[in-house]
Design brief:
Blueprint lengths: L3 H9 L13 E3 L4 E3 L6 H6 L1 H21 L3 E2 L6 E2 L22 H9 L9 E4 L4 E4 L9 H4 L15 H49 L32 H26 L8 H8 L5 H20 L1
Antiparallel strand pairs: 1-2, 3-4, 5-6
């Protein structure tokens, strides 16, 4: 019995597990993503959009599943688990890179003295217990003096001296000191950057002022190592030949500025439309006697001139 036709018709119902495209798919199993760089077929896209999107998604999922089945696996109660490799696609950061923290007071001192940083182990060997114990925390080595059953007391110790309480107070004081130093380092780090930039600008302003305080405006002064050149204001000159329209605009701008200055002077003096201060002029002409005295003197002079004319 020949069943090849039946198998062929049955296989035609299902698509091949191998995805072949003009542009190979970019599969990143670390991020479980597939990037299809094949150009869009406009005819298929416009004729049946839903079917085109389903076919594209199916090809991507098939390629991703095939890549996952090629990864090494390890057994687990829920079945074999694939070990994902490191991602190959570089994604942009959601936030900018953190700024480097300024060194603490101890770090600056260690760098100046050449002290190498040594990481202390979290576990220490206890000779009495013959086992490794925590250096800090619960059942820590730092609480050994508090928990021991016998204590050595000095001969001149007071009667009410409690060695357990003294050891506990010493430990808590060390913790409080470390916390205080941590807060001081944080406060110093927050203000160091701003204060440093402000001091730098202040020094540059002072240096620039002192350089031009001499008679030669600093031209013959000795230069310091690494001293920056002062940046002056670059003068700009108008072109000797300009268009008529541009010259007209420049003239109008000058006239507008003059008109604005006159209006501003009138407004400041409060003399209305007359720029001349009449009261001040009358006081100067009358030598401080006022306008009434000046009018009487003018009338007197007019009367004298009339009498002289009649004679």
């Amino acid at each position: 019995m020949d069943v090849s036709n039946i198998l062929a018709s049955h296989a035609a119902k299902f698509q091949s597990v191998t995805v072949e495209k003009e542009t190979p798919l970019d599969v990143d199993t670390g991020l479980l993503t597939v990037t299809d760089l094949t150009p869009i077929d406009e005819d298929s896209y416009k004729s049946n959009l839903e079917e085109y999107l389903q076919m594209t998604a199916r090809d991507g999922i098939q390629a991703l599943v095939a890549a996952l089945y090629g990864l090494p696996t390890q057994p687990s109660p829920d079945g074999p688990l694939a070990q994902l490799p490191a991602p190959t696609t570089q994604l942009p950061r959601a936030k900018p890179l953190p700024k480097p923290k300024p060194p603490t007071k101890w770090e600056r001192f260690a760098a100046a003295k050449g002290i190498q940083k040594r990481v202390r182990e979290k576990k220490v060997w206890d000779e009495e217990r013959q086992e490794w114990v925590n250096r800090w925390g619960k059942d820590g080595k730092n609480k050994e003096k508090e928990e021991q059953w016998i204590h050595e007391v000095k001969a001149d110790a007071p009667v009410d001296h409690d060695p357990v309480k003294a050891a506990r107070d010493a430990r808590t004081s060390r913790v409080a000191k470390n916390e205080r130093q941590r807060l001081q380092n944080n406060a110093r780090a927050q203000t160091a950057a701003g204060d440093r930039e402000e001091r730098k600008k202040d020094i540059e302003r002072t240096l620039a002022t002192t350089r031009i305080s001499t008679a030669s405006m600093g031209r013959f002064d000795n230069k310091l190592d690494g001293e920056k050149k002062l940046r002056g204001v670059k003068r700009k000159f108008e072109a000797a030949e300009t268009s008529v329209e541009r010259e007209k605009q420049a003239s109008l701008a000058v006239l507008s500025k003059l008109d604005g200055d006159v209006k501003r002077a009138r407004k400041e003096k409060g003399a209305g439309d007359d720029v001349l201060n009449v009261r001040k002029a009358i006081r100067n002409v009358s030598k401080g006697r006022g306008g009434v005295a000046l009018a009487r003197e003018a009338n007197r002079k007019g009367a004298k001139s009339k009498r002289g004319g009649k004679r």
